Amino acid sequence: MFSVNISIYLIQINMLKKFIGASGVFIIFAMHSCKSYKNVIKLTEVVDTNATIETRNLFQKIQNIKDFGYAFGHQDATSYGIGWKNDGKEYRSDVNEVSGDFPAVYGFEIGHIELGDIQNLDTVNFVLMKKLIRKAYKKKGIITISWHPDNPLSKKSAWDTTQVVKYVLKGGAFHTKYRGWLFRVADFLNDLKDKRGNAIPVIFRPYHEMNGSWFWWGEGNCSTEEYQQLWKETIDILSNEYNVHNLLYAYSVNTFQTKDEYLKYYPGDKYVDILGVDIYQHGTVDDFVIALQTDLNILSEISKEKNKPFALTEAGLNKINIDNWWTHILDKNISGYDISWALFWRNAWPNHYFVPFSGATSSADFANFKKLPHVLFLKDIKKIR
Ligand code: BMA
Q1: Which residue owns the Cα nearest ligand 1 atom 10?
Q2: Residue 27 CA to ligand 1 centre (angstroms)
Q3: Angle at Cα 322 formed by Cα 317 and Cα 328, nearest 5°?
Q4: Among residues 8, 82, 84, 75, which one has the least CA distance to residue 40?
Q5: So what's the pLDDT on residue 28?
Q6: Residue 314 phi/psi, 5° resolution?
Q7: CA distances (Å), origin 204, targets 47, 180, 355
């Protein structure tokens, strides 16, 4: 109830601004005389102090979602699926074909935008991606973007672990090059506009799984201080220099054992909006369940301490070869936590998919999973503000 009031309040401020033009003095005066102003600011405080109203509203919505359940997300949901690839004319999703509704959360990946390429590292054309982002947003979906930038030194992929972070930082030999990369990222993000020309709010999730050693920004390939500096400089450059104000920032750790491990690379409360964790079932069900319980218990605690929402920012079991995985393994072990969403990885090839397609094992269970009242698909989150 309180959050609804806040949204209305912010909309009123916006309307007032439009009505009285640039005269902020009146607003400040009015605010000072209003006791709840401090609360409004506190609750809608996000990393970017100049974040747009839509971005702040998204943050509020993410916090409200958990009161209803958790939102279901899929990476590249509308870009391709098993046996099809979006040619720009269709709007489909394996999720919709199996369950009768589209995901609530849409993951997109901008790896190779930094190179000025026309398509991302997974061959999704960037013009098409923008179109799909606009469409998902128009339908009231939530957009999250990951970024697997190439190694700036070796020019190989994000998985090339040649040490480079220290050279990318301010004063380093590759800093100018890195700024050029961020310029392209900013250009892409600033071009995400709705019909009215307002920037589409996005949950940006760069430099994820840093506690693993497979990316150039990962464990053992840079120091914790270098990682934190990379994170801060990236945000500062995007927001303060390249005027990107439509982002919430998600810090996303690979499955971990302890609170200390989770916070080892944490760049600070002022630089993180959402706490994330990536957990896949690579081995047995028992191992997966233990990982979910360990990590989500710790994250619940950190989330409360820091007053920040948390999410399962990547998850899945490749090929989902267990009939009742969705209802009996996944949902049973995550529905008791206050996560805002769970995003499942991409349906890339017949041996690399994380959501069932028509006829795949677990399709029937997925349809039942979708029907659970606390599992929120697109039609369900439309109602949440
Ligand atoms: C990985 C795999 C890769 C892909 C990368 C970025 O998990 O799916 O094939 O290139 O994510 O999307």
Answers
A1: 122
A2: 47
A3: 90
A4: 8
A5: 34
A6: -155, 140
A7: 12, 18, 22
Assess whether the C-beta atom of 109 lies below 6 angstroms from ligand 1. yes
Give the distance (Å) from ligand 1 centre to CA of residue 41.
Answer: 38
Any ligand 1 atom below 6 A from CB of 76:
no
Q: Which of 116, 103, 198 is nearest to 149 (CA)?
A: 116
Determine whether the shortest distance from the Cβ of 122 to ligand 1 is under 6 A. yes
Band of the pLDDT at 18, cuts 50, 70, 90? Answer: very low
C-alpha 349 to ligand 1 mean position (Å): 11
Integer Cα distance of 363 and 355 in angstroms: 9
Query: Cα dihedral angle (107, 111, 115, 120), rounded to 10 degrees?
Result: -70
| 6 Cα distance to chain centroid | 23
- Which residues on adjacent β-strands are paired with residue 275? 251, 310
- How many angstroms from the chain centroid is the CA of residue 120? 17
Whole-angstrom distance, CA of residue 384 vs CA of residue 379 = 10
pLDDT exceeds cutoff 50 at 40:
no
Which spans in the chain are helix H? 2-20, 24-32, 37-43, 53-65, 94-99, 126-138, 165-168, 175-190, 224-236, 259-263, 285-306, 332-334, 363-371, 378-381
The pLDDT value recorded for residue 44 is 60
- Residue the block writes with tokens 């801060």: 232
What's the start-to-end Cα distance of the chain, in Å? 11
pTM (global) more than 0.85: yes
Give the Cβ contact number of residue 225 at 10 Å: 12
Q: Taking the CA atoms of the chain, what radius of gyration do you get in angstroms? A: 21
